[in-house]
Design brief:
elongated, 3-stranded mixed sheet, 2 domains, alpha+beta, 4 helices, single chain, GMP Synthetase, Chain A, domain 3
Length: 157
């Protein structure tokens, strides 16, 4: 890298010297054209050297390892997003202020959803939905998103 910077500095100094020494006239245009070719060659020389080398562009899985902490963070984000999706689906159907908590575990970097806790303490149901069995409806929505069985969906009031 230092050699590249020195070559650019040298070509700039040579350009200044050429500009001072060469008289103005027709020959000045030709000399500046040749000088411009040298400048382009010096600037492109690292690219030419890079292209002449053989490069291994294949990716090796062993070279890249994802930390367990990152995987746990991603799993927590997935679960949080899933909880929010369920709450939004219930809210769109007229069941607002439902608090969903998904209980999960991570084994061998695999996320598994164990159960779901539904807090109905602050539940507000719109008037036209009050005749619906709220437990069955909430179980259906949770099962759509999580594929959990009815036994592991726990309600609190």
């Amino acid at each position: 890298m230092a050699g590249y910077i020195l070559s650019i500095l040298g070509i700039v100094i040579a350009g200044i010297i050429i500009d001072i020494i060469v008289p103005s006239g027709n020959i000045n245009k030709y000399i500046k054209s040749i000088y411009a070719i040298f400048v382009v060659a010096v600037i492109l020389s690292p690219l030419i050297n890079y292209l002449n080398k053989e490069h291994d562009l294949s990716l090796h899985y062993e070279d890249y390892q994802v930390s367990e902490q990152l995987l746990n963070y991603i799993s927590k984000q997935k679960v949080s997003s899933l909880e929010l999706q369920i709450e939004n689906s219930l809210n769109e159907e007229g069941f607002s202020n439902v608090d969903i908590k998904i209980n999960y575990s991570i084994e061998n970097n695999e996320l598994s959803i164990n159960s779901c806790t539904v807090n109905l303490q602050n539940l507000v149901i719109v008037a036209d939905k009050q005749h619906i069995n709220k437990y069955e409806f909430i179980i259906e929505v949770v099962q759509e998103h999580t594929n959990l069985t009815e036994e592991v969906i726990i309600f609190y009031e």
